[in-house]
Amino acid sequence: MFRKKKCVAMLLAGGQGSRLHVLTKQIAKPAVHFGGKYRIIDFTLSNCINSGIDTVGVLTQYQPLELNDYIDNGEPWDLDRSHGGVHILPPYQQVKGGDWYKGTANAIYQNMNFIERYQPEYVIILSGDHIYKMDYNKMLEYHIEKDADCTIAVLSVPMEEASRFGIMNTYEDGRIYEFEEKPSNPKSNKASMGVYIFKKEALFRYLMEDEEDENSSKDFGKNVIPAMLYSGEKMFAYPFEGYWKDVGTLQSLWEGNMDLLGERPKLDLNDHKWKISYRHYPDHPHFIGNDASVTNSVIAEGCEIHGTVINSVLFSGVTVEKGAVIKDSVVMRNTFVSEGAIINYSIVDVGVYVGKDAKVGEDRGNGGQLTVLGSNVKVKDGTQISSGEIIDSNMYLKYIEKSHLKGLLKVIKSDDVIYSTRQEREAIE
Amino acid sequence: MNALGIVFSNINDKQVPEITKKRIMASVPFGGRYRLIDFVLSNMTNSGINNIGIVTKRNYQNLMDHIGTGKAWDLARKRGGIRLLQSFPDDSEEVVQIDNRLETLKGIMYYLDKADEKYVVLSDCDIVCNISYSDMLKSHQENHADVTILYKKNQENATWKEKRPVFKLDKNERISKIERSTNIKISDALYLGTMIVQKEFLKKHISLAINKGYTRILDYWADHTDHFLVKGYEFKEYFAYIDSLESYLKSNLDLLKLSVREDLFRKPYRPIYTSVNDSAPTKYGPSAVVENSIIADGCIIDGTVKNSIIFRGVKIKKYATVSNSIVMQDCEIGINATLNHIVTDKNVQIGENRMLCGHETHPFYIEKGSRI
């Protein structure tokens, strides 16, 4: 027996997030690390449980292994329930054949049976790639009060940036009369946050209609919402105030991490009323050594800091040796930064090894560009990685020293840096 | 591992009256985010002991809060897992206070009877170490010993508040004599509060020892070293005894040494687990100055911290200086306050411009929840 629920959440976590390049080569975007201890999906899952929504379907498709492991039984978010709880919903085979999720709307369509088990009045559609703290329950109350068929959460963005978002044009009472995807001349600055609440009955009706339509790209923003508007359904915009960030690009991911810093950070994670839960690793508290200097930074457990850390976010288990400098950077789990190495204005993924006196990236003040090292990259002693480079996972980097090695190595990108995978390196040495 | 774990949660409570006033030894905070029992429980679960009984005596509410279902140690099990044991000597309706280990063991006979495991690992809670009991059990089995007791060769002359058991060992690591002393010299074999015995052997000898009027199990082994094969098992890595506020401060500050952190926390496949509370990572402000310190998650550091252990959720305001101190969970150190050789218990608030100072050998202790 499934206990009836008032509202079921469906979390779209199947996207690749290709604009995050190497960071999402092996993991889905919602599993990307953020803010020292978290993964992007922690924010949405914590919002759900903090809002009293205890039934969450997570739709996965792209590289789901690590995301599945991470969510597991949902215990870190108190979502390990006998009734409801978190469920991973991958695409599956059916009698009439199976298919991948063709779009956001199709993904929900294929899982209507999951929603139906709980007989909810309302369904909230979320995406697992935004950083924000939001009480969905308030939005649900608004939705009920307006007796809306669909409510879309909107954020006021600066007018000059409005053309980058999906913009909702509304009447004074909040009712939406028009939706424009990335308009060149926006009429309003109310940007959709990708959070939708539907009456279940209306959602199902439009999903089935959309499924019939062969020309549809099976997407909420492109098809379902416009179709509902066209038919004159009651659709309202719910104004959200507070921090919201789409961390879909390397630059915005870096910015999102930097928003944790400063005396009054834009994003406060020390908020006891709205805790963001995450899966824990058994790390000891971090150690700051005698020669270390740490200013305006966020540092997680398990770190050993003997060098200088300025304006940076360090994840658990990072080691910074004596004389090394990390500035304006995001350094993820278990990265090792050797003596004298300098990392400037970079995102460094998990398990990277940076050799002695290596130099990664260029100071922002000197016109440096964001530099990115993929997971498990090894940077040899003294190597310089120029600003703006995006280095693929498992690469082994060094100056060309022995010319006879050249043939074995994979790519030569700039003059003094060569790229090869670690396996190839082991074959050489 | 075919062994059962028995943890004595409030042995030696009285030795550190300050920090055990409102809690038992097992739940004394340690090292920024741990409680003392975390070490024993993690050692056991890492060694494959899945059936653990924690013997309680005094108010153990804070211990229950900490352990919960045992999930953090992967011990929330249908079969085995963690169990809190109350030791009642007999079925009479009066509540009898038990104050010795033999009576305690007799009182939990029901638990020993029920378990299927062949061996029992007995451990105290006033110890900090990272040990593999499976290696110790292997040595116990290979030597066909009746009892294997953990000891450490003392590295330096030490004076303890209470008498500590010291062993005389022969060439084959067989214990021939057990003495008690407060002065312990270099290379004396110091008892580390841990032993392995066969369950049936233990059960038989508990009753025998009580009938003969013994109160301490160690004394019983000591007087019968001719009859039983009592072996020592040397532990060579970092080990700390908490027997006074001074040793509490010292062993906490030991964590500032890399070798100690490696011995305790960085053993492959042997992490120390503790209960989790979703704290955010620690934030350092633009004016933060930190040297040689252990800092847990959820802190906001804007002042100066030197040679100290800072627990979870501590706020250190601008211009404040904390040195050679232990600051426990959720404390707040006000603007321009100065702390030196201080142990503040949980939830202490130090106002602006306060100046508090203890000494290395006499650290000053501030009680839980104080406002200064």
UniProtKB/TrEMBL annotation, chain A:
Physiological role: Involved in the biosynthesis of ADP-glucose, a building block required for the elongation reactions to produce glycogen. Catalyzes the reaction between ATP and alpha-D-glucose 1-phosphate (G1P) to produce pyrophosphate and ADP-Glc.
Protein name, as recorded: Glucose-1-phosphate adenylyltransferase
Species annotation: Bacillus yapensis
EC top class, as a word: transferase
GO BP: glycogen biosynthetic process
Positions bound to alpha-D-glucose 1-phosphate: 101, 166, 181-182, 192
Catalytic reaction list: alpha-D-glucose 1-phosphate + ATP + H(+) = ADP-alpha-D-glucose + diphosphate
Gene field: glgC
Pfam families recorded: Hexapep_GlmU (PF24894), NTP_transferase (PF00483)
InterPro entries: ADP-Glc_PPase, ADP_Glu_pyroP_CS, GlgC_bac, GlmU/GlgC-like_hexapep, NTP_transferase_dom, Nucleotide-diphossugar_trans, Trimer_LpxA-like_sf
GO molecular function: ATP binding; glucose-1-phosphate adenylyltransferase activity
Signal peptide positions on this chain: none
Site (Could play a key role in the communication between the regulatory and the substrate sites): 61, 100
EC number: 2.7.7.27
Subunit structure: Homotetramer.
From TrEMBL, chain B:
InterPro entries in alphabetical order: ADP-Glc_PPase, GlgDAde_trans, GlmU/GlgC-like_hexapep, NTP_transferase_dom, Nucleotide-diphossugar_trans, Trimer_LpxA-like_sf
Top-level lineage group: Bacteria
Record-annotated Nucleotidyl transferase domain positions: 19-157
Domain Glucose-1-phosphate adenylyltransferase/Bifunctional protein GlmU-like C-terminal hexapeptide intervals: 288-354
Enzyme class: transferase
Gene Ontology biological-process entries: glycogen biosynthetic process
Alphabetized UniProt keyword annotations: Glycogen biosynthesis, Nucleotidyltransferase, Transferase
EC number: 2.7.7.27
MF terms (GO), sorted A to Z: glucose-1-phosphate adenylyltransferase activity
NCBIfam families: glgD
Family membership noted in the UniProt record: Belongs to the bacterial/plant glucose-1-phosphate adenylyltransferase family.
Listed name of the protein: Glucose-1-phosphate adenylyltransferase subunit GlgD
Organism, as annotated: Bacillus yapensis
Gene name tied to this protein: glgD
